[in-house]
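If your schedule permits, I should be very grateful for your opinion on a structural question. I have a record of one protein: its chain in single-letter code and its fold written as discrete structure tokens. Would you kindly read the sequence against the tokens and tell me how you understand this chain to fold? Thank you for your consideration; the sequence and its tokens are set out here.


***
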Amino acid sequence: MKRLFEGGKLSREWVELYCKGDWESCVRYHMEERGEPHPDWMLPDGSIDERLHKELIR
């Protein structure tokens, strides 16, 4: 997510809401804590953004 954000592909709202705010409700955070894999293009709310996936494979 950091790379997508720094590249201007991810909205600042995601970072503000989940990374700096309500990180306890971040699905990615909980998956990482449990050691569960998740795609890099999964958003903090658990939704999958295929547009981001396309950006990552460029």
